[in-house]
Amino acid sequence: MFWSVKKANMKTFLLRFGITLAVLIGLWFVFSRIPAKETFHSLAQGKFDEEKFGELAMDAVFMESKELKSDSIDFVMNKLVNRLSEGNLFPASKFHIHVVNNNEVNAFALPGNHVVVHSGLIYMCDNPEELLGVLAHEIAHLEKRHVYERMKTEGIITLIEGAVAQGGGATIATAVGELAGLAFSRDQESEADEVGFNFLMNANVRPNGMATLFRKMKEETLAGYTPEFMSTHPELESRALNIESKCAGLPNTFVPVMSAEEWENFQINLRLAL
Ligand SMILES: [Zn+2]
What we know:
This protein has helices spanning 7-31, 41-44, 50-64, 71-85, 119-124, 128-143, 146-153, 156-165, 169-180, 186-202, 208-222, 227-232, 236-247, 260-272; strands at residues 96-100, 107-110, 114-118. It is mainly alpha-helical. It has a three-stranded mixed sheet with strand order 1-3-2, sandwiched between helices.
């Protein structure tokens, strides 16, 4: 994740996540003989399917935070991801970017190539390059298979496969709930910064946005708005410094992502979609 979710909210999230899944899995037991229930088809095979699992995780996210959708939001988010895919090996269509109504400054990646961006984070971005820095970081986590690796390391995949084989719906719900609490290792965060930075460079996007956003987050933290953030991310300063040193001396030949007016309109449209 770009940075951590506050602990109190995480608890609520986990609880709702668990409840949602318990309900969904309960439904699966009822409807398991109906072929149309594709969502649970792969789980019923006792095999971990990242895509289907991602859909379950997204259902839980949407229970917590409403997805903000409108033509203008979709247009801008597509424009950002299309731009990022330029000069990089992944197609823009590979990723599903979801903007949700949540004031907490956060973004995170989920299995199935889903990236969730809170509206609170977008409001904090002063320009599209800052938001693109976040997207590049999250997409780097997915491209480097960090989400899957974490789930494997924590034994979550084994837990899900075992639970499905035994028909243990409650255990599956617990396992999926654990996913939301997964934290990447410091090495994985550094790699996501590094790879994300390269994505921006390849796409000819000014990469400074990553660092300026880190700085803003740090200021917020020091002002006492989000103390949890600092306690869980002591490396924020070094991450900003690292990006800044990589930006130093770069020629100013980057192509703007969109005009300032377009960006302002996007922010306005986002508020209108609430
Ligand atoms: Zn991260």
